[in-house]
Each structure stands twice: as structure tokens, then as C-alpha cells.
Amino acid sequence: MRLRLLSILDERGAACSCDLEAPLGKSQPTISHHTKVLAEAGLIVAERRGRWTWWSIRPESVATVRVALGS
What we know:
Elements: H1 2-12, E1 15-16, H2 21-24, H3 28-40, E2 44-49, E3 52-57, H4 62-69
Antiparallel strand pairs: 1-3, 2-3
């Protein structure tokens, strides 16, 4: 699931937590758990836009993420 989440962020550049439910087929609490783990690992960052959280891959981590994704 985390690799799929990273793949989505790599494709889109950024994504709102609310927009990750359908492509991942997971509930919001599950997505929040996995984004928290990825953020703590330093791979993604959050940006608050109003009441929503938008996630993107840290610029410093793009190369690492792409290697993990095989891109």
C-alpha cells in the first residue's frame, strides 16, 4: 500500500488525503496511518490547505522513491 501511495504522489505531484481513498481502496484512517509512517521516514511532506491535508514527495527524496518504485 505504501508503494502504491508513493506511486500516486509521484504521478500527481501532490494529492489530498481525501483523493487517496478511491485509488487505494482504503479508509481515511488507514491512509492517515500510512502517510504518517511515510512522513516520519522523511519521504513525504504535508501541506495544510484549509481543512485538507495535501501530501507530496519531499524533493530530496524523489530519487529514493523512484528507485523503490522501479521508475
